[in-house]
Design brief:
The protein is of the alpha+beta class. The chain has one domain. Strands 1-2-8-7-6-5 form a six-stranded mixed sheet. A two-stranded antiparallel sheet has the order 3-4. It is globular and about 45 Å long.
Amino acid sequence: MPLNLLKKYNQLLELGAFNEQQRKQSLMGIFNRDIAENQHFYFKQKAIHPTPIDGEIKMQILFSHLTTVIVDKKTNKRKFDIHRSVRLHWIRHHIEEKKKDNMLVFSVNEPQGKRTYIYDKEEKYVIVLEPKRKLDEYYLLTAYHLRGKDVPRNKIIKKYKRRLNEIL
């Protein structure tokens, strides 16, 4: 498990041999280091926070959004997603803007509100932020690897084509 703490972008975490408890422990170590306990978790000099949800622990919800996927939209039931999880440590790399080439960073109006996207074109990796109303902070909504039907649909490129003039 400690080996995963040594992984760098664009290596994938090794989770296949773990049982559910070991896997969660390994992922939680990375999540705590990179996000929950990171005093310098900023994008474009703006602090990043988990989305508040009444009656629920914000960091637990964020951890869930970064390591699981919705399998039932009616009930919002989620299940473990290996594709998100093995890239969990990529979030910090992209938030800190360590990769400069083949990146799209943009904001767009969505039906749910304004969103800021960080898109790694080579790795097909997306991070979604929501600017807070004050515009000096962000909520981290989710991060995921584009795959399946989403890749040929070019959803992110379509969003990019209707981007706002500034990054919010």
